[in-house]
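Hi Prof. W.,

I finally got the TetR/AcrR family transcriptional regulator prediction working! I wasn't sure whether to trim anything, so I left the full sequence exactly as given:
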Amino acid sequence: MATTRRTQQERRVHAEAALLNAAAELVVEHGVRSLTLARVGERAGYSRGIVTHHFGSKQALLERLARSTQAGFVPGLADLPPGLDRLLRLIDGYVGALGDAGTMHRAFLLLWAEAATASDLAPIFRERDEAFRRDLRDDVAAAITDGDVPPDTEPDDVAVAVVGQLRGIGLQRLLDPRAVDTARLRHTVTDHWRQALRPIDVGGGDGHPYQIPR
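And this is what came out:
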């Protein structure tokens, strides 16, 4: 019985992955307006009924797609403590990953842009952006505590600016890949934030100026 349950679970995971990938492909190729459960099932090689069985509705499918595309986009961050180093690594890794963004992430960016005028998508992407900003705010707040960022820095403002910049670069990359050299740009953007968040050089308690990690 245990073996049968594991096999069923594996089949479920495989089917859901195939359906999400099919949905992402359709969004990239034809836009979210053309996305239907029937088309997703057909693209994945299943019936519409199995799409409904797994997700229940188009809205639930889009919510799952939005969550799954962001998971692990920048690897190697989970083991890093919040702080300036983690923030800069996230920025660098995000821009770098845009150079080889797969179908899932391209679909996320298109859906994110669509959410500005689509009431059914807006709540999903407001929640995803808030989660992203919260992660960035934690890094900035920790960096302030560590003395790596000026104490008058506003974590909320930094988070909004970083998310806007990263998402904007991603959309530009989708529109005109040749105009956005992510291999070079990642260093430019990361260095911009390293410099922007640098504390003013003043004497520390030990007589030495504050230094920002590089």
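Residues 2-69 form a domain with the Tetracycline Repressor; domain 2 fold (CATH 1.10.357.10). Does that look reasonable to you?

Thanks,
D.
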